[in-house]
Amino acid sequence: MSNYYTKETMKRFLEPKYFGEMKGADGVGKVGNPKCGDQMTVYIKVKDGKITDASFQTLGCAAAIATSDVVCEMAIGRNTEEALKITQEEMIKKLEKLPAVKVHCSSLAIEGLKKAIDDYEKRK
Amino acid sequence: MKKIYFDYAATTPVDREIIEKIKPFMGEKFGNPSSMHSFGQEALFAVDNAREKVAEFLDCNEREVVFTSSATQANNIAILGTLKKIKNPHVITSSFEHKAVLEPLKESGVEATYLPVYKEGVVRVEDLEKAVKENTVLVSLGYVNSEVGTIQPIGEIGTMIKNLNKQRERKIVYHTDAVQAVNYLPCKVNDLGVDILTLSGHKIYGPKGAGVLFVRENTQISPIFYGASQERKLNPGTENVFAIAGLGFALENIGKYNWEKVKKMRDRIIDVVLSDINGAKLNGSREKRIPNNANITFPGTEGESLMIALDTEGVAVSTGSACASKTLSPSGVLLSMGLSHEDAHSSLRISLGRYTTEEEVDYFLEKLPPIVDRLRKIAGK
Question: Residue B194 — φ and ψ, nearest 5°?
């Protein structure tokens, strides 16, 4: 198998835990565009200001799928303010590392989560 | 786990017999071909022998054969060397050439026309004819596109250029990069009507590190590298004897192999994938195509994901997706054929070769559909 990605990235790419559309989500964030190749939707469920569930749908490379999974995992259990503070570095740490050209995938995932939180705030 | 190589268009393994034949040049026969003593002459003999085989294959004079370190280097010499001393030149090429042609052309800064390639991935002779201008000095077209495997009408264009040149003051030099064609298509330079031709050793079951630039005698070309007088001064520097010798043997083997079996397996891949996987589309002409290539778009997936997932099952393929490149823009080849960005990102190139077996094809066809399904599920497509 290729050594391009770390074991953790591959695990999350091959068996992501948090993928799937969320019915009745409290916030939805759509990011990316067909031109760049990655399209990501992040769904969150929020109760008393706390993110109780998160999921994603991602059309993108292995890194985009893996970082989507990481951002959902990290968001769950945090209140929305804390979730907005999730950094690229923290996410990459979870994957051990990411190839330099793939770092932007982690920022896309963060952007997706932010948009979902924005959406939730607007709906309140 | 099985390991299956379906990326022969990227590079080929070296023929085992050739490895044995060239091993001595990595060992005891280490001389420099420019040396007059016996060590040197032994090496020179190997290089000359390879040159003879190239000349035979291309049906040209041995003096017209220049060894290079790669096809990229050969293309750079072809383009920059042809344009070097010419004022206000115009060049015609196609919009889906390899970077080894597009980049030196860009670097030269000259005026260029990029011919359309249409959905079929084939240039049209009439477009070329219309694009010729008074100051056109070079036409450079790949014989076979490296990503989609489509065959360009190189011979037909050669005849046209020959006729045009009869009445022209400024003659047009005609270059083809034949790297992807050598295994499968006739390459006799007089039949093609080319003045300059590029080929590479590692795409034809020879070692990496050797290419060829055929330059017809009396073609206007200036050196872009300087040094001693090796390779008609167009590529000075000590020859890569080992790789050059291997390239010669590899060319000698061309024509001994019957590609019918590979074509049948490739056709089976196309037929099964297109019928079993919803929305899958073949890119480029099916007929005007070398026998080992299939380039397919899988909407709702992303090419790099597909490639990586297949790799975990042991199958090596290639993708035109930006995510697999360092530039983050998708395959320019597919975009120039009119594919949307989304489709270009969703494409795979599957290229078979001499050592491909029916069992490998079965395995691939079994593993691919569930991977596509899974990725589509993740994408919500």
Answer: -95, 155
By C-alpha distance, the chain A residue nearest B372 is: A59
Least confident of A30-34, A106-110, B247-251, B303-307: A30-34
What gap in Å lies between CA B148 and CA B273, rounded to an integer?
Answer: 16
Q: Are strands B90-94 and A50-59 parallel, antiparallel or unpaired?
A: unpaired
Q: What is the CATH number of the domain that holds B362?
A: 3.90.1150.10
68-97 in chain A: CB under 8 A from chain B: none
Q: List C-alpha distances in Å: B158 to A26, B2, B101, B165.
A: 65, 45, 19, 10
Is residue A1 domain-resident? no
Strand partners, A58: A40
Cβ contact, residue pair B305, A5, below 8 Å: no
Chain B residues within an 8 Å CB radius of A10 = 308, 312
The domain in which residue A55 lies consists of 7-123
Catalytic residue among B132, B308, B323, B365: B323
Tens digits of residue pLDDT in B11-24: 999 999 999 999 99
Range of the domain at B91: 16-253
Give the count of domains, chain A: 1
CA-nearest residue to B300 within chain A is A59
Cβ neighbours of A32 in B, within 8 Å: none
pLDDT, tens digit (0-9, with 9 covering 90-100), for B23-40: 999 999 999 999 999 999
Are A101 and B328 a contacting pair at CB < 8 A? Answer: yes
Shortest Cα distance from A104 to chain B (angstroms)? 10
Which residue, B194, B224, B253, sits at the end of a domain?
B253
Q: How confident is the model at residue B320 (pLDDT cuts 50, 70, 90)?
A: confident
> Could A101 and B379 be called an inter-chain contact, meaning their C-beta atoms sit closer than 8 Å?
no
Which residues, including other chains, have CB under 8 Å from residue A59's CB and lie 6 or more apart? A38, A39, A40, B300, B301, B302, B378, B379, B380, B381
